[in-house]
Amino acid sequence: MAKLREHFGDEHFSEIFKTMTADNGPEFETLSQYERLGTKIYFTHPYSSWERPQNERHNGLLRDYIPKGTSIELYSDDDEHRR
Question: What are the backbone angles phi and psi of residue 66, rounded to the nearest 5°?
Fold first, then answer.
């Protein structure tokens, strides 16, 4: 997130990221800091995957190519096939 903020700058960040939806995991505890830039932050309820269907859809598509438990760090932006 810090790299994205640096790339787009504070003045354009909320134009690109109008809303963000996250679960209540500790990795998202600082996400609300982006509200001061104008981005609306929504947190889902535990075990409520239907509250973030687009995320679940993308996870499913990702798993078509990268099996669960495999690090995505093994892949680059240029990879077209599984390693």
Answer: -125, 110
DSSP letter (8 states) at residue 45: P
pTM to 2 decimals? 0.60
* pLDDT tens, residue by residue, 32-50: 889 999 999 998 888 888 8
Q: Which amino acid is at 6?
A: E
Amino acid (one-letter) located at 20: M
- Per-residue DSSP letter, 68: T
Terminal Cα distance for the chain, rounded: 27
Residues 45-52: contacts with CB under 8 Å, at least 24 apart:
51/21, 52/21, 52/23
